[in-house]
Amino acid sequence: MCSPLSGLVRLMFIRQVWPSPETAPRSFSGMARVTIQRLFFSIRVLTTTELDNVITKQIIEIDPIRGLARVRTISSKSISVVKRTGVPIAQFEGEAEEGVESQATYGLETITPFRLTHTTPITKDLLQDAAFDMEGEIIADGSEAFAFGEGNGFVLGTGFKQPQGIFVNAVLQAAARDTAAAGVLDADAVILMTGDVKTGYNLSYLLNRRTLATIRTFKSTTGQFLWQPGLSGPVANTLNGLPYALGNSVPDIANGAFAMAVGDFRRGYLIVDRTGMEIVRDALAQKKKAIVEFMLMRYTTGQVVQDEAIKLLRIAP
């Protein structure tokens, strides 16, 4: 009678010779094939696999506008922003001449946050039996979806039931600087656009990583890279002496595209939050199917409030 150890050795030998029952020689009798199939079934039953305790996730690139702009939290439906639309003018007067009256003028701009939502259905079986904390995963993934959605809106939002994007603002587009050649980003334009913003604003660039990579390839007439600090040591976090931020939603270099912005985003763009993220756990809507719905919701928006503080660069069409 064979020992269990010798039987296991034979199983290992058979598995090495034939990776699967289907690869066994056709000359084997039916009984032999049945025996081999049973042996492979035993191998699958007796061996186990270990589940990784970490879910591997791809990186979601989130636009950093919330970290650049001014953020205001309100408790009502909307907020009225007071803007100075005109400044008083001081004039020189001669002796005994009457001074000219002049005063500042003001206006109101109303900003209303919009609802951003995300709903995930999941079965109660999966909630109870999964090897991971699925409720925590749903909330984490939903938070990431919110960050991506609002960031994209702050860059490219139309302003209709969503934020007004910096790169689609009509006033900023009309005042944008064009590059010298069609479809090409040039170093001169990157520098000259900073001169279009008034002195006193704390400037920084906003572009995507692909445009930044293009800028790093700029060379002089002698073939030397213009951005030397990034090649001789740690990559500098400045461009043309100014800090920069990378936004994945910023358009790529293409004919007629607004591919870069420079400005004081804290003074030029306002993000308004009405509430923090709310989580609604609904186990009743689909109770007959034993499905639980997690709805994540928040109210937020963004808008350009000082257009002179931001300048766009358009790739010439």
From TrEMBL:
Q: Does the keyword Kinase apply?
A: no
NCBIfam families linked to this entry:
major_cap_HK97 (TIGR01554)
Q: List the SUPFAM superfamilies hit by this protein, alphabetically.
A: Major capsid protein gp5 (SSF56563)
Q: Which Pfam families match?
A: Phage_capsid (PF05065)
Query: Which taxonomic lineage does the organism of this UniProt entry have?
Result: unclassified sequences, metagenomes, ecological metagenomes
Which species expresses this protein natively?
A: marine sediment metagenome
Is Endoplasmic reticulum among the key words of this record?
A: no
Grouped into one coarse class, the protein's main location is virion
As for subcellular location, the record says: Virion
Q: Which GO terms describe its cellular component?
A: virion component
InterPro entries in the record? Phage_capsid, Phage_capsid-like_C
Q: Which UniProt keywords apply?
A: Virion
**Protein name (database record):** Phage capsid-like C-terminal domain-containing protein
Q: Where is the Phage capsid-like C-terminal domain?
A: 46-314
